[in-house]
Amino acid sequence: LLLEHEAEQPQFSDVPQSKQGSVPLEAGMLPPLHMEQLFSAPAAQYLLPIVEEAPSGEPPDPKKCSPREYLEFYIFPVLLPGLAALLHEAEKEKCFEGKRTKFIPSDFLTEWLYNKNPKRKDESFTELFSIPFVKDWLKDHPRPPIPLSLLLSEEEASILIQSFWRGYRVRCDSEIQELRQWQKKLREERHITEVVKKFWTKQEAK
Fold it and tell me: Where is the composition biased (Polar residues) (predicted)?
């Protein structure tokens, strides 16, 4: 299979003809895409082809077919639509507009491929963290919590920042400072902390 796979690989166009041998470039092969071209236009222009069905004809035996046939009949019909859906979802999550985002592409693709598996076409939708092998993996590899800065929208974050700033400005007022000092002195003189501690000790004893 490895020899068949290597024999089917197209030759690069920048190799001289004398070194390419007699193997021509395959018809319909896309030209190479350079990095400067990839980042010079909006992401929406680079859409993957949507392959909803396998190539026509009798499906080959997956245990005996060539690597190329296996990809065309069993992998690409599911994987390519998943990658296209991933790009659309990333655009919705504004992943192309900032450096940080809560969107995790591998999570989305895992959930999408699991639910689009032809063997599960009659089953209900399953969320990522309810997938059996995902649950087993997370038991041994728990994830750290997502930072609050990624969970909040710009509007929610601005409200929190403004609220904190207004509170800070109020606490800087001389009358508020005097009140806070009085409260602190009162707590120390009456041993408020000890009183509260004894109170909860009695409550727990009941």
Answer: 10-21
Range of the domain at 178: 152-205
Task: For residue range 7-23, list pLDDT tens digits in order.
Answer: 444 443 444 444 444 43
| b/e map 48-62, b = 16+ CB within 10 Å | eeeeeeeeeeeeeee
Note the pLDDT tens digit of each residue in 135-155: 999 999 998 888 888 888 888
Q: Which two tokens stand for residue 25?
A: 């470039």
Rounded-to-integer distance, Cα 188 and Cα 18, Å: 92
Same domain, 75 and 131: yes
Could you read off the pLDDT of 47-60 as tens digits, one per residue? 444 444 556 667 88
H helices of the chain, where? 2-7, 17-20, 35-38, 67-70, 76-92, 105-115, 132-140, 148-151, 154-171, 174-189, 192-205
Domain end residue (candidates: 112, 127, 144): 144
- Who contacts 114 (Cβ-Cβ below 8 Å, separation ≥6)? 120, 126, 131
Which residue type does 37 have? Q
Residues 137, 162: one domain? Answer: no
- Domain assignment of residue 39, yes or no: no
* Contact (Cβ atoms closer than 8 angstroms) between residue 134 and residue 110: yes
pTM of the model: 0.50
Residue type, 121: K
Provide the domain count of the chain: 2
Domain boundary, last residue among 115, 144, 173: 144
Q: For Cα atoms 94, 100, 102, give the angle at the middle one, nearest 5 degrees.
A: 70
